[in-house]
Amino acid sequence: MVQQWCEWRHRLPAIFLLVCLCVIGQAAQREIVLTEQLNVDWKHEFVSYPFTAEQGACVADSVRLIGPAGPLPVQLANIEYWPDTRFIKSATLAFVVDALAPRTTNTYQVSFGPTSVKDAMPARDLKVAVTDTQVEATTSRFGVRLLLGSKEYDPPVPAKDVPAPVLGMRRANGTWFGGSRLYGETPVSTFTATLTDRGPAFVRVAYRYTYADGNTLDLAVRLNAQGNQVYFETLSAKDNRGKDGFDILLTPGLPPLMFQFMPEVQRLQVGASEIGKTGWKQKAVAEYPAGTITNLAPWGDWWNEFTQTKFHLRYTIARPEAVPGEGFTIPTDDPEKAELVIARQDAGAWVKPGERGDKFMPLIKGDDNTLFLRANNALGERKWSIGENPSYETKLARVFRPINTFQDEVDPLNIVKGMVLDWPASAEKHPRLILSAEEIAKAAVENPAAVKQNQDVARLRQMLGQLAYYDTMRNAASVICLYDGIIDSDLITAEERKLFRAQMAFLAYRLASPANWGADRWGYASGNPNMTVAHVLNQGLAACTLRDHPMAKTWVEKPQAYMEAWMNRLDDKGYWNESGHYGRVSVSKLMLFAIALQRAGFKDYFQDQRMKNMALFYEKSLTPPDPQKILNSSARNQAKFGRLSPPIGRGSHGSNWGLGGLMAKGFLKSDPALSKVMQWSFQQSNFSQMLGEGMSGLDILYTDRALPAEAPTDWTSEFMPSVGPLLRSGVGTPDENYLWFVTKPPTNPDGQFWASEIGTLLAWWAKGQPISRRFPSVPDMNHDHGLLCNRVMLATNWKAGQHVSGGYSASAVQKGFAALPGVNAFGAEFTWKGNWMQ
After folding, report:
1. pTM (predicted TM-score)
2. Considering only CA atoms, which of 478, 596, 496, 510 is closest in space to residue 547?
3. pLDDT, tens digit, for every residue of 356-412?
4. In whole angstroms, what is the distance from residue 279 CA to residue 306 CA?
5. Cα–Cα distance between 18 and 417 in angstroms, integer?
6. C-alpha closest to that of 373 among 526, 254, 264, 262
7. CA of 789: how far to CAs of 227, 446, 722, 752, 794, in Å?
């Protein structure tokens, strides 16, 4: 009897898996199809798939694989057998993709059966030699020697006396280097080192070290066929980071090393002479004193130059001096192009939501000049790799602007193949994020330049092609809006449309990855609220744009949850606890996301009183029209100033924001009266196009100068509970009065307003003229000195030449305001009544 059937298991379109099972007699075959859709050239990529078989259908040594160029090594791991048999029930099927060219497809045939097969599996760049005490695994590109065996210590012995896992590593040129050692205060009771997998696709050794205090350290080390790096995974049951761990020694055996890195904001690694210079920098390891050189971190920050997600250690040649008469010449170019690379893997594994994010692994130079990576026993998981690139020059062509978080290169193929990068498009066409094609065409009459900006195909092609290797905080929303404006237009070909859709979906996956930003993980985000708002809501904007994607509802869940929490964080007046400048950066993003949520049908925040309060607060807080010419740094608004942002806290002051335009359009249907007031405020900004971080012109097109406007009649003096009294009268008249005090202590330590501002007269307009404001009033917080604020001062530790806004030492703040909560320069009983200025 002959049975035939085919089963569609998965369709993973960027790189999708089609499984077809055909049984003829007792033979079985499956087909794996990898289709490349991101325009990436993949080589030497390890991939794995779940594998299952019916009872009696498969034994392990029957599995074979044929690829585009013929038979390939294939390996089963994590095997589960059917009860009381040697037949495979489930396993992980692994092999190495030699090459997958851009926009092409590879097809692989997997065969298996109920009996062993005799034909030998082909060898493919992985050699394994095993003894009772070690395994040596090498490829043409890298190698490693690993400890095998086990031992029980009674009584427990010091960690330094226990064998360590890594016995050495091998460069591509055959040179062995390094090793490892245990260190720590806690004695070790037992260790086991087991060879769990020995090829032909990969080699893996699993370790467990048990300590006298009950802690366990689990470690796995893996080398893939054709691989140029060794992968490490650790799991510590306790947080003993300050006590125990192991060091991976990188020396002896390596040439002199040069640490190459992209400088960050502080330029601490390169010194003051390099401040302001962009591009890759380098510093010889020999120049560092003993101690920590840098730290391997789970994610890329922008404020600490001593944390990286990847270390690049370029090899250099120690050249002898020229000897007269021997014809020795020092080459002009270093012939040793290779570099050692240590990289964080799987950022999400390092820190789970709610856990500490400071699980750094320091790269240390010892007193004896030994260089080593310290893997301390921090609680939970960590994953990283150590390997070798053939040329350090390959990375130098990619210059990442030293700002915000540092992105990774494209994810491994094993991750990307699971992404849905091709999916059925809905009947609803783009643009649809915050405007339709008809609405954009109407808005184009007033803003043709914004339409041109929203249809910049060259920029979209460039940004999507970089696969998120850029500052996503400041640029992702712009790319999303470009995509929305272009993807269904006749500006691109059908083939480009297919590519752009795949690359846009990849961007959404990257925005949702903890490698990008993870505020739910302690230490995975900046203390600046606006940065977290931008990162999280960019993910939400991508979800709203790709709302017909299978992952859209998942992608939007976190941004919606954060949006709700942020709305609850507002005080009763709608105040967001951030500075006069950065608060508006956050508010603009919240407003734009609310527009996108409404358009996508996820939620309508324009019916929400909290959103209305927020809109009112930020338009109310704008100063009366400012006649001065020195405050605004925006060239497009130099000729005519309107209402400006007040000088609160960190960031630019006196900025000409046009958020009222977004708010007027947003509230047009849900609250027409409020919309009219917001439109009046937009007019008062002289229709400013400063609307937050760039949206490729789509935010400008959303505003409408023709909407009805009406000056407010109820903007009078009121107490802003998180800041202080705002005293005013005559709003909308040439004789407007405005006086605002800071009387409340700050609740956000990152520059909501500084401790030194408490008691400050923020700004004072009398009969339409600026009388005073916090001095000096320039859009540069580094010169907005605490000593020059017009207020009663506490003692300060300021020194001549010091440029800081705060003015107080941390200890002064702690001893002063922290000890007297609620007390301000006006006294705890400060009260005010009505329209004080009338």
Report:
1. 0.89
2. 596
3. 778 899 999 999 999 999 999 999 999 999 999 999 988 888 776 655 556 788 999
4. 17
5. 12
6. 254
7. 61, 42, 19, 16, 12
